[in-house]
Design brief:
Length: 284
């Protein structure tokens, strides 16, 4: 149901797009190649090369035998000519089923590609000659910008039975239908800008790493300094301890000296008393 709704909405977009082709005068998409053009409002280039098979000769179409409501199936390759049974070197080919054998018609070649603008969408127009009398068949492909995802969808609306000569309508919904999305030059500029941002970020990261290294080094120096200060404090503590010990030893020595002096003084007094008693005895 979702896909049917998408196709129905796309069909309406395509129909109204063609009604406005002749009215759009403000915007243009100047052709720069078989599948590319440059927007006149400087919004960027439309380049379909990423959604086209490439190579030469006789490659397959990128979008092959996609069925339409008009019972035909269509093949389309935006940038390079392809081969398909009755279609040779074409951009777009119609396959009409038949009971005996399918019939093929060329609906456009890359040499006839034109880029038009209806004020809303870019229209890719092709012309081709095939069938009895080489009748001219015109294809109109509305390029719808897909900003939702990276998918590309080729949608055949089919032949308009009320318009003569024969006209065929299609839509190509793709990110590459968005100006500036898929062009090589703009992609290179974006890549360069992206690379510059990466280089700047890497430079900032290196600068940050350098600053972090400086901080780590400073922290290491601070820790080393703190360690040295701790050693100095420890050494000073040991010196104070030794001085205290030496002071205590001096006190002990002084005390021992005082005790010895007292002892010697006591013995001297005793000797004096003894001598005095001896002298007294001798006098008697």
């Amino acid at each position: 149901m979702a896909s049917l709704r998408t196709i129905t909405v796309t069909t309406l977009v395509v129909i109204f797009s063609f009604l406005g082709v002749s009215l759009a005068k403000t915007l243009e998409c100047k052709k720069t190649g078989a599948c590319s053009c440059q927007m006149s409002d400087n919004s960027g280039a439309i380049d379909l090369s990423r959604v086209s098979n490439s190579g030469f000769p006789a490659i397959d179409a990128r979008y092959k035998d996609v069925k339409s409501k008009d019972a035909s199936s269509y093949s389309f390759n935006p940038c390079w000519p392809f081969e398909e049974v009755g279609c040779h070197g074409v951009a777009i080919c119609q396959r009409v089923p038949d009971r005996r054998a399918a019939v093929y018609f060329t609906l456009g070649t890359h040499e006839t590609a034109q880029f038009l603008h209806n004020g809303t969408h870019v229209i890719l127009k092709y012309e081709g000659k095939s069938g009895t009398g080489h009748a001219i068949r015109t294809s109109w492909i509305t390029l719808i910008c897909n900003e939702e995802n990276d998918d590309t969808l080729f949608i055949p609306i089919g032949e308009d039975p009320y318009v003569k000569p024969m006209h065929y309508y299609f839509a190509l919904k793709s990110p590459c239908a968005c100006p500036g999305k898929c062009s090589d030059s703009e992609r290179d500029e974006k890549k360069e800008s992206h690379d510059e941002k990466i280089e700047t970020k890497e430079g900032d990261d290196e600068k940050k790493e350098g600053e972090e290294e400086k901080i780590e080094k400073k922290e290491g120096d601070d820790e080393k300094k703190e360690g040295e200060e701790e050693k100095i404090e420890k050494k000073e503590g040991e010196v104070d301890k030794n001085e205290k010990k030496e002071g205590e030893e001096e006190k002990i020595e002084n005390k021992e000296g005082d005790d010895k002096n007292e002892q010697q003084g006591g013995e001297g007094e005793k000797n004096e008393i003894k001598e005095g008693e001896g002298n007294k005895k001798d006098g008697e």
